[in-house]
Design goal:
The protein is an alpha/beta fold. Helix content is 40%, strand content 25%. It has nine helices and ten strands. Bound molecules: adenosine-5'-diphosphate (ADP) and magnesium ion.
């Protein structure tokens, strides 16, 4: 029997009014894969992630998680969303809560975990991202890189089967990009399944197992990262990479 992908997306379409932003996307993600999604601004990368975890309602197509179809508005969707975490460009921490409280919010409120267990997990994952010494800090006291590491720890406390990242380093000062990419590299080493929208080409090339290149709402290339960066097949991808090298 062939192994079932963790996530399978079939004919995904998303329109905003008459603007078709995602045009018939097909791809799947296997357990343990780290997939980077690259492409110019406006190509539909964020919308794709948001459709996957139900932050946007898709216009058409089907999404399966471990073989089970995720229908919008269904009970499965709520359950699925606890299994698939998301990390945003703008951190989205609760600014009125401490680091520790931020990392206990999901587990106590959504998973109804007791405080002791929630605190244990919070500290476990804050330690993992090197932020355990900051449990009593407020987000405003942290640097961007520290905030993003807390946001990653918060996502990890839910012990998700998959993590989606939408440009996790794009809002950071250059000197803080490395610390966040380092955390993500460690998660990749641990075998966490991840889908990462990024403009960090070296990270995509060296850390991800597979890279998806999107352009104007279409998946133009989807291949092993090593292959795609060495031998882009399409003129569009070549052009995109060339612009990056020049920038
Ligand atoms: P990317 O993340 O690749 O930069 P997005 O997914 O954010 O691209 O956007 C893709 C297209 O969808 C853009 O043209 C954008 O303007 C449009 N779009 C995204 N969100 C909305 C929305 N809520 N309403 C209308 N148009 C949107
Ligand atoms: Mg985006």
């Amino acid at each position: 029997m062939e192994k079932e992908p963790m996530l399978k997306v079939e004919h995904l379409v998303k329109s905003f009014g008459t603007h078709e932003v995602l045009k018939d996307l097909d791809f799947s993600v296997n357990k343990g894969e780290v997939i980077c999604v690259i492409g110019s601004s406006g190509s539909g990368k964020s919308t794709m992630l948001r459709c996957i975890n139900g932050l946007e309602t898709k216009t058409g197509g089907r999404i399966f998680f471990e073989g089970k179809e995720i229908l919008s508005g269904s009970k499965e969707l709520a359950k699925f969303r606890t299994k698939v975490g998301m990390v945003f460009q703008s951190f989205n921490l609760f600014n009125n809560m401490t680091v520790l409280q931020n990392c206990m919010a999901g587990t106590t409120k959504v998973l109804k975990m007791n405080k002791e267990d929630a605190k244990f997990l919070a500290i476990k994952y804050l330690r993992k991202v090197g932020m355990a010494p900051y449990i009593n800090a407020m987000p405003a006291q942290l640097s961007g890189g520290q905030k993003q590491r807390v946001a990653i720890a918060r996502a990890l406390t839910m012990e998700p089967q998959m993590l989606l990242f939408d440009e996790p380093t794009s809002a950071l000062d250059p000197e803080m990009v490395g610390e966040v990419l380092g955390v993500m590299k460690n998660l990749a080493k641990d075998g966490l399944t991840m889908m990462i929208v990024t403009h960090e080409m070296a990270f995509a090339r060296d850390v991800s197992t597979r890279t998806i290149f999107m352009d104007q709402g279409v998946i133009v290339e989807n291949d092993i990262s090593e292959v795609i960066f060495k031998n882009p097949r399409t003129a569009r991808m070549k052009e995109f990479l060339k612009r990056y090298m020049e920038a």
